[in-house]
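#random but structural
TW: two for the price of one
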Amino acid sequence: MFQHKKTISLYIHMPWCIQKCPYCDFNSHTLKKTPDYNAYIHHLIKDLQQDIKFCNDRVIHSIFIGGGTPSLFTAELIYQLLLNINHIMPIEKKAEITIEANPNSVDIERFKGYQQAGINRISIGVQSFQNDKLLKLGRVHNSKEAITAAKFAHNVNLHCFNLDLMHGLPNQNIDDALFDLKQAIEINPPHLSWYQLTIEPNTLFGSKPPILPNDDLLWEIYQQGHQLLVNNGYLQYETSAYAKPNYQCQHNLNYWRFGDYLGIGCGAHGKITQKDGQIIRTIKTRHPKGYLEGHYLEKSYCVSQEDLPFEFFMNRFRLFEPTPKEEFELRTFLPLQTINKQITNAIEKNYITEDKQNWQITEHGKLFLNSLLEIFL
């Protein structure tokens, strides 16, 4: 159940995109000219070397290469990156190693190259299989490229692959949303991320919001889509993640179980528990210019004991599996008595149930997750 104390996950951020999507609030930067990808790989390694002081001789349990668009990097560069990482920190032989890919930036040879470089899981940013929806989302691929990329993933010797899909899109109706899911199910990925489009500040959609489905329609889309996925063998194990049995994303499970992880690359975040029980969070320099000048760490700070219960449950209650009480103590170094009042309040409001070993979020708690988490503020 618990991640061994000698293991850790690693997140690697690749900051460049061909085009910035209007809904995206991730740290991504539009290509104005071809970056020096070799130099960036060099700085990622130096960044990791500086983070070793936080790690207490741990072994890497999972790696996630996200972005941005990591598939702009060649397989040769990814191989060099993973090889150097393994020289600095040992990678478990069965570690899950994921790379994100956009459908327009890959072909079968690149997928094979990533597999040969050590990648065993690819996450493909499809978002929709309908060209009109892709256009409104500012995506640079079309539906044919999305289907082709997903089929490529089937033809490569990977442990797993994921398709990212969105719902609640501009002017989307139920038939549109179910069409995307049916197309994905036909491709038969072991893992599906299906999440609702939200309007974030500091995005183009934030300044010029599109017309989105109303709450009643969103609920109907979710209910029918969820049932369709369940009927086709997908289990919902997290708020927006579905998987066939034994294909849950191990890297994300570590996040939601409040495990430790390093973050290298522009704007990457890390969370590392020290031997004295202090939890340190790290944030790396956001802009490639500063990062490529060797300025990696923007700031680091210790999470206060007062904030730990909220941070723990903010992550843990995204998962639909039971939350072991022992895990709270192991991850936060706080006694259960610290949160007796909040737990009682959550139980009285039917947000969670409990037995001797576990807490379990209820269906009511899933619907009112923000209200549940506010109890721990």
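TW: number two ↓
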Amino acid sequence: MLAGVVVVGFGAAGACAAIEAAEAGADVLVLDRFDGGGATALSGGVVYAGGGTAQQAKAGITDTPDAMYDYLAHEVGDAVTAQTLLAFCDDSADMLAWLEDKGVPFAASVCPYKTSYPTDRHYLYYSGSETLYDKPAPRGHRTAGRGTSGKLLFQRLERAAVDRGVRIMRQTTAQRLVTDPNGRVTGVVCRQLTGFPARLHKFLGKLAAKPGLYVPALRRRLHRSIRRIENRHGTEITVSARDGVILCAGGFVANPVMMREHAPAYRRGLPLGTLGDDGSGIRLGSEIGAATAKLDHVSAWRFVTPPSALMEGRLINERGEEICDLHRYGAAVGHAMITEHGGKGWLLVDGPTLAEAKRQIPGQTTWFQRLQTHYLFGRARTTAPTLAELSRRTGVTIGDFAGTAPFSLIDVSIKRSIGYPCPMLTLGGLVVDEGSGEVLTADGHAVAGLYAAGRNAVGICSNSYVSGLSLADCVYSGRRAGRHVAAARRSRGAQR
């Protein structure tokens, strides 16, 4: 089978890469192990954007690319160069407009309180730690749809890709890259399912995504069945790529071997992604000499809000020492707990704070956040009339704390708990040229014909994650790779 551009993986990064390449005139073929969507479709559909988006302007929010850069520089660090971050911020408003042009809806209703994820009344919110820095602005642009709206985001991108002539091969697993004698990537060897095995594979894949996401034992059993189907019924085919291959197959949070090797401290988190987030895209590049970086960087979220009243509490370790400012984003809280406190922590609140938090539950929470409050205010909470008695009952040292009795200590430690999971995703990947998305070797040379984007690659969010930054990077890096592989195609054509 022959194509111009082959995209491996069909989440946000793969869809955006395919759309850009197709709009530039390339013949684009997408390969996906399952039925498309990846972690994007499971996500909240939040895109981090600012610098004066149409939604910010409509809401009366003042923001500039410089203000966005000044904040993100604290989060991004050395994950990308200052020039790349500046370009990302300068292009941010146009990027969101590009998504709207592809049918992705956004809205300007601002959430007035601190939350991990807004309800269906609000679609623009402070999705990171912006309020702790100068010139804060809400930049979390949630796709305007009911519930967790990542599925809607992907559906619109998928439709845009199909409308532009992109071909999609589903239930097709990329196994290895094909190179010519000069080392240029010229294709992909795959295993493809057809007929009833493909339909069964699709069904099991959906179950593994949800509810399997929340029930790890079920997901493991489903994965074994899925692998058997692939091994017994898959047909090996080679897809040739005249212009290049773009790897967009996600991270490796669903690969326990890679997690143990690169991020062993994160063993208690809830892997946020599909079974396709198994590191296969990273492996494909590594096998032909591509460099990797930031593989030990994982985002693990420990949110205590909503309800927003809980931010009046104090997060402490077993010695009574404060762990982290609760105004920080949940991934910063999770990082501090895991790397400095063994994943343990307790939220100390007084009686009026707890009462106000309970009053806020109906108006500030979605269904899954209500499950969280049910756990936190139930089995995870210990209450006592004095701080001394609370310390005696829990074994946690409690120092000075100004408040009104009764006092409560809520166990927010990171455990394997359905009632209060700690979602996590991997942030590192293949090293790429920041101007083109071309995959690089350890000595800095480009692997001809190979590109990477999204969580297959080191990118904007590979040091520190705030809500929406991964999807924004998927859009940014996916479009970049799609444009440059098409431009390289035109350049070779002109030379001939």
